[in-house]
Design brief:
Blueprint: E1 6-11, E2 16-23, E3 27-35, H1 37-41, H2 48-70, E4 79-85, H3 89-106, E5 110-114, H4 115-121, E6 133-138, E7 143-148, E8 155-159, H5 165-175, H6 183-192, H7 214-230, H8 236-261, E9 266-270, H9 277-288, E10 294-296, H10 300-303, H11 308-319
Parallel strand pairs: 1-4, 4-5, 6-9, 9-10
Antiparallel strand pairs: 1-2, 2-3, 6-7, 7-8
Bound molecules: 5'-O-[(R)-(carboxyoxy)(hydroxy)phosphoryl]adenosine and zinc ion.
Zinc ion (ZN) binds near residues 119, 271 and 305.
Amino acid sequence: MNKDIYVLGMETSCDETAVAIIKNGTEIVTNIVASQIESHKRFGGVVPEIASRHHVEQITLVIEEALQEAEMTMNDIDCIAVTEGPGLVGALLIGVNAAKALAFAHNKPLIGVHHIAGHIYANRLVKEMSFPLLSLVVSGGHTELVLMKEHGKFEVIGETRDDAAGEAYDKVARTLDLPYPGGPHIDRLAHIGEPTIDLPRAWLEEGSYDFSFSGLKSAVINTLHNAKQKGNVIEPENLAASFQQSVIDVLVTKTLNATKEFNVKQVLLAGGVAANKGLRSELERAFKQVEEVELVIPPLALCTDNAAMIGAVGTILFENGKRSDYSMNANPGLDIEQNN
Ligand code: KG4
Ligand code: ZN
């Protein structure tokens, strides 16, 4: 009988200090997330120095809490997986160094993982993967279509040329004086408004799977400023609904096109913006028509940053024989296609 594999995952790339324990790559034993959102809110965005300070204060507490909740000790852990990049360098450093110290102290294998690979593997905690698959990754820092033909191998077939989807949401929210992070607030407003304002959709060249959201973001900001100058009132909920419709149209259409071109069996939604209710329901509606493709959408808690997803991808890399050594460093520019 094969022994169960327990991987301790750690994530500190942005504003969540998170530790999780994952059994056999698919089952969450424990998943602790200490969020710093309250500390960053008053600055309207994540302040890197404050993020690092919080990670330092929280990391050992969160590791202890995860082990305690799982009723496990480090002796039960087979491997430590940690986000190596991309992210804020000072924030990543705390997780990477804590993971190295823990691996050294307990003589455990150490594996550096890619944050976006983690977001994609959050789906494996919901549904076993079947290849080839396509993942639509939409987060605060990334908007990508990633093709996977086997475990642990990622091919980026399209990416944003400017702002990430989440970044556009947060900037539009700030223009509407909504609190940080703005994505959920725009989502909420969009549901009570109507998409009455005509906004651009950046389709780019024929056949391209790349994205661009900065033109849309500027169009929203200009619409608001022009209205203000003329003394016209724009209902924020209608602007939110129009913006959201523009983003979703492009995301869903490009995902559908890539699904057909690459003949994939599954489509996985990943990243913080995957929590968006409009995007979730539009994707569900669109993929109802494509019966041969299975759409997987993780629960909200697995869409935003967490360590369960890091443990999930860490397990695959562990099984594939990947090991990092103590020279591993935080790598904000880590490439998902190279990191396996
Ligand atoms: O993946 P994530 O937690 O962090 C990164 O790795 O970037 O994503 C955070 C992003 C933020 O931009 C936030 O506004 C956005 O996800 N977000 C949403 C929603 N919930 C979170 N965007 C749109 N609608 C939502 N419901
Ligand atoms: Zn993330």
